Amino acid sequence: MTRPVVVGYTATTGGADAAALGSRLAAASGSALHLVVVLPADERSVITPPDAGYDRYLRDQASTWLREGEELLPASVERSSRVRYAESFAEGLIAYADEIGAAHIVIGAGGGGLRGRHRLGSVAQELLHSSDVPVALAPDGARDVDSAVGITRLTAAVGTRPGAEALFEETIDLATAIGARVRLLSLVTVDLPASVDTGVIRVAGAAHADEVLAEARSALPVGLEATAIVARGASIEDAVSHLDWEPGEIAIVGSSRLARPRRLFLGSTAAKMLHELPVPMIVVPRTRKKSSKKSKKGGARR
């Protein structure tokens, strides 16, 4: 059994999207899925004094939501559900994920976004600026993807800035755990200043793609496939919109170089990708916990 998947669940379409993506990740990796609802901690603001009757109502309502959420999951997925208490939804998810050694925290898009695209709500924003666990973002409509599709391909957006090593390790570990193909997307052409000659950009892009592909092939176990492509377009959004994406695909990006070690901070590149990305995205902390690194002899462990 690999490391569990934590789903931040709410009784909304975003919660259903998160549950659907979480179940696909759990099923593909043979992991247990933990469905979590976070309620306000007892030490709430003095403006909202504790009320035993209201607290009991909230607990009962949360339990009902979790039962309804579990009904959305495929029967084959091992699951459990929890009500947690914290100052914020994101804080409760991070604490619980750390407690059980989770591989990912999965959250749905906020309301009001375009179907098949991402719109970050307040919980996702907080997670993406504080989590020490990779965060998987489910776009609106993820609940409609057939669970039998599974996870077919991982596309890692690799640039030249700090954090690429952690991103690469996460991609290899996850691909090994679920048996997905790997596609490495070189962002060199959009990382370089606009003043750089186009010929130089083309050469740099091709060289970077060859470099990351060679690194992937040396690290991937036998049986896993890797390819590399170069992002081409006037902007990140333009490049992403012209790529082909599979129904069972997940994009993986690293944190901003501004992130503290082992913490997330959503950078401008990832934020721009989200505007056009039609598939789930996993954001990886800039440096990884030592316990999550793979063994050279034993292969990837999650």
Automatic annotation (TrEMBL):
Domain UspA: 1-138, 153-285
Pfam families in UniProt: Usp
Name of the molecule in the record: Universal stress protein
Homology family: Belongs to the universal stress protein A family.
InterPro entries linked: Rossmann-like_a/b/a_fold (IPR014729), UspA (IPR006016)
Organism: Microbacterium lemovicicum
